[in-house]
User: What shape does this take?
Amino acid sequence: MTTVVMAPDSFKGTISAAEAARALADGWRRIDPAAVILSRPMADGGEGTVDAFATAVPGAQRMPIAVDGPAGTPTDTSWLLLPPTPDSPAGTAVIDIGSTSGIEMLDELRPWDADTSGFGQAIVAALDHGVSRLVLGIGSSASTDGGAGLLSVLGARFLDESGAPVAPGARGLLDVAAVDLTGLRPIPDAVVLTDVTNPLTGDRGAAAVFGPQKGFAADADIRRVDRSLARLAGLIGVDPSLPGAGAAGGAGAALMRCGARIEPGAAEVSRLIGLADSVTGADVVITGEGSYDGQSGDGKVPSYVAGIAAAAGARAAVVAGRIAPEADTGLFAAAVSLTDLAGSAEESLGEPARWLRAAGADLARRL
Assistant: This one.
């Protein structure tokens, strides 16, 4: 009897990690109905982080909340309450920026005005509930506000030269002349999950590298925001060169100011959901993501899961919406591109679950 672990990341914008794992499992069972299949959807701190924990941790409870989303309008979402443990006797909150202040929540990019206040509101809701620990995923953010939005919700005040509060988002960041942190609410033990190691400022900083993804088109605007982030770092007392400070448009730096520690997302999610234990004794481990390319070997979910599989003596396979020509698939016994299976990117994007089922069946035949 074959034991298979399904541990994909989400396929961004098309299907969640949990849904992808389910579709892969359905496809495998078409060929091998007697297989023992374990679903362990993964994440690296981006979209799907809450879903990964909800699927993998028994007793996890979604806590509904309304927040001010990145479009500036009320949005219904949730954070996840994990059961108490000896290390976290009042439970752990899992919150991801993707479902509170995330770029996928926008119909139209808002580079100047989107902010992280919704993420901060979810953090406050978890603190008010009384949790002992926070697990914060900060991938797929919509803004470059240096975390000013979330810090404001936690009690910080960002003021212009006249002493008036500044506007939300990067627009207000340009005007920050002083920061009052006397009312900043303390947070308990907090770990920040991200696969981003970029500093806050400079050529590899939040504005330069991720600003264009969030809608900044002009180099002059990117330089203005970069200078504002540098000024903010000085005002809140964070070293802008720290790895991970530039994650989520500078939210990484803001969370560092609150005492949170930055951890590689895929590794920490894997540890917290017990992936290594699940893989022990497995014959095959299937992972995947939307686009497997030259960066996927740098701490992303597929490469990390492949390492877990290798350590357990299991064969690993990767399924991706697209596999780039330059991508190194040498870690895997098999690699499947949904675009190739479907015949076109449009077809695979239109029906991701259908083609993931086809990929699961294909891998069952081959492995």
